[in-house]
Amino acid sequence: MPDPNQVVLTVPADARRLPLARVVAVSCAAIAGFGLDRIDDVRQCTQESLALLLEMCPGDEVEVRCWVHSDRLEVRASVACGLTDVGVDESSFAWLLLTELADDARVQLEDGRLVVRFVAEAESRFGLATGDPQ
Questions:
Q1: What digits encode the pLDDT tens for the residues 113-134?
Q2: Residue 43, SS3?
Q3: Which structural domains are found in the chain, ordered by start?
């Protein structure tokens, strides 16, 4: 039985199709109750995840899985890859932005796929709800 909290999208690894992944992730963040600023963070994290993924291992198809929880979103973007070791350039703009905006971010190999994973919480790291006026 499929997980009712999970959304899966598979798209060609083509720049013209990748915006679909951002739309899905942003929609999942809205379902999880994220504020507008945090939703924009999820959009940017998804964009940077895809950029990292395809820079490290271009492939034919990208799979994006989103798990929606009441106040948390996990996004995993992956591509089939022949790499045996993962070495992310921690000084790259994509990685720096991803790790700044996400509550957790990782790059790993799983079952022959390169996976870029991030987690975003509805609440910011500063203890303020991101949808609240400051």
A1: 999 999 999 975 544 444 444 4
A2: helix
A3: 6-121 (3.30.565.10)
